[in-house]
Amino acid sequence: MTHTTISPQTKSPIALTDSHGRTVNYLRVSVTDRCNLRCMYCWSADGMKFIPHENIISYEEIARLVDLSVDMGVSKVRLTGGEPFARRNFLDLVKMLLSRHPDLDLRLTTNATMMNGKAKELAALGVRHINISLDTFDRNKFQNITGRDMLRNVTRSIDDCLAHGLKVKINTVALKGINDDELPVFVNFAKSNPVDVRFIEFMPMGSCSAWNESNFWSADDILKEASKLVVLTKLEKGERRSGPAKLFGIEGGKGRLGLITPMSNHFCSSCNRLRITANGMLRTCLFSDSEIDLRTMLRKPSITDTDIANVMREANVNKPLGVELLNAKKQNEVALKRMNAIGG
Ligand code: SAM
């Protein structure tokens, strides 16, 4: 296959700016829709249909999209899934991207159950940041939420990442009646370890998750309860936010507490990201099911890099304000595709 490649000399970055004045510098790529866990809020009760293998974009195709995105001003890429470590030779992709773009801020989001001591290699390849999803520190509850008895794998991976100097963020889906009783455990974990523990409000994604409104645990509530347990401190101006997370220090603690509020306090006006799904579709907004088929373009020899870049740029111009979609539709009709395919 031949492609017109934009060489570094002729690069003329045209920023990915949209009609709301937002500029994209962050790309999230779902490397697979497969996952080894069966999380109650993510997994369909009647089984999950997976994307056929031939429709999953290859590592080379991902690298080509990353090359184009970097040319258009993207400086941060997150590899997610599904479970990225569930895809064969996942570290080959990490290596490929960092060897092409040594300055790229390449981050991972993982459930950390399949990392098996890979933190050392990740650090050596140049990965500095890793987000680890963990909703409970209770072994039985972990099994109930995820369908797998793998809590120990996760805690071991967290230790391993910290031992190799990776910056760790723990992402916890806030689930009232399920993990709200563990707030003291999470707060204490953030106090005793140099990690950010970030509670994420549950989002109505997909149609089959075992969740209902009574499980919604708002960030305001979490903050109020956490303040009774520790003294939360205001951080320096530049540190108060990390992406969509609002962060607090913990007096006498090593880590920080964060809240991500897609539902109670959306952050659409500052959204700086695009998503590539595991089957090579471009999604400009998490709450919109509208997708642009990049995979077909990637596989057509006559389509050049410039063609693909133009399509990405044009799609981004029309990037919606997700909150308007949420308000306009009934919540359970929004974003019918589940997180594993979009890339959570
Ligand atoms: N397997 C990887 C992991 O576990 O981090 C990456 C994919 S997973 C879909 C990414 C994150 O999305 C996880 O933290 C998961 O808990 C979260 N998530 C999934 N469905 C969600 C929902 N409906 N609302 C909020 N967070 C959700």
From TrEMBL:
Its EC number is 4.1.99.22. GO terms for molecular function: 4 iron, 4 sulfur cluster binding; cyclic pyranopterin monophosphate synthase activity; GTP 3',8'-cyclase activity; GTP binding; metal ion binding; S-adenosyl-L-methionine binding. PROSITE patterns: MOAA_NIFB_PQQE (PS01305), RADICAL_SAM (PS51918). InterPro entries: Aldolase_TIM, Elp3/MiaA/NifB-like_rSAM, MoaA, MoaA-like, MoaA_NifB_PqqE_Fe-S-bd_CS, MoaA_twitch, MoCo_biosynth_MoaA/MoaC, rSAM. One of its GO terms (biological process) is Mo-molybdopterin cofactor biosynthetic process. S-adenosyl-L-methionine binds at residues 41, 82, 133, 203. The keyword Hydrolase does not apply. Coiled coil: none annotated. The keyword Calcium does not apply. [4Fe-4S] cluster 2 binds at residues 268, 271, 285. [4Fe-4S] cluster 1 binds at residues 35, 39, 42. GTP binds at residues 28, 78, 109, 169, 273-275. HAMAP family: MoaA_B. Belongs to the radical SAM superfamily. MoaA family. This is GTP 3',8-cyclase. It comes from Halodesulfovibrio marinisediminis DSM 17456. The gene is moaA.
